[in-house]
Amino acid sequence: MRTGIYPGTFDPITVGHMDIIRRALKVVDKLIIAVALDTGKEPIFALEERAELVRAEVAAFGADAGRIEVKTFTGLLVDFAQENSTSLLIRGLRAISDFEYEFQMACMNSRLDPAMETVFLTASENTHFISSRIVKQIARLGGDISSFVSPNVAAHLKAHFAGVH
Fold first, then answer.
1. Catalytic pick from 50, 87, 91, 132?
2. Residue 87 located in a structural domain
3. DSSP-derived pairing of the beta strands 88-93 and 117-122
4. Is 124 known to be catalytic?
5. Residue 136 annotated as catalytic
6. Number of independent structural domains in the chain
7. Is 2 assigned a catalytic role?
8. Which of 61, 110, 132, 136 can bridge 65 by disulfide, Cβ–Cβ 3.0-4.6 Å?
9. Is residue 75 part of a domain?
């Protein structure tokens, strides 16, 4: 059974993330969505809240939801992968600028653990421009984010920016 890890901060999870998750399930038998603490990005939602939002979103996959496990982690991704007995990472690419960073990370992960392999899935034509950072900015300014996130995530963002969290 091939298990892969799709890591990220998912702050918040977007339809772009969901597209990568859906397509990753074509490549692996089991997918661990690894929600990272990643203090470098200063997420607006707490780690466990982000994990719960991801769990709620993947529940929509019906029978395929049973092939997905959502976990949180801190520290090195290669350590998390080893703890979960896998050496396959799934990463989404939106643009050339993503590739430069992701290629460097893939090389570093491979150096830290030579068994580590990274599979890149390019963003779909209708999601390549979506980023959590921009979605948060639009939400903060009161814009319509309904085509970028689910109604549940939109409600969490609205509550956050209204100060009701």
1. 132
2. yes
3. parallel
4. no
5. no
6. 1
7. no
8. 61
9. yes
